Amino acid sequence: MERSPGGRTPAVYVHTGGCHMAGKRANGVPREAAVRALAEGVDACPHCRPDTALGVLE
């Protein structure tokens, strides 16, 4: 997951592992945390599409 600049929000994007768009503010999380973040409205990276990889589609 990618944190916001300054930490104002817990996460701004969910990425798949190895996504080239995940910056220095990204860190790995367990699958369950990524699915929960997506369900709670954290945006999926439009490049790596973790929602598709995790089977969580809107």
Task: Describe this protein's structure.
With 58 residues, the chain is an alpha+beta fold. The chain has one domain. The chain contains two helices and two strands. The chain has a two-stranded parallel ribbon with strand order 1-2. The longest helix has 9 residues, at 31-39. The radius of gyration is 10 Å and the shape is globular. The model has no long low-confidence stretch (mean pLDDT 89).
In terms of topology, how is this protein built?
Blueprint: E1 13-14, H1 31-39, E2 43-44, H2 50-53
Parallel strand pairs: 1-2
Sheet with the most strands: spatial strand order? 1-2
Mean pLDDT: 89
Number of helices: 2
Q: Strand-residue fraction? A: 5-15%
Key terms:
58 residues; alpha+beta; two-stranded parallel ribbon; 2 strands; 7% strand
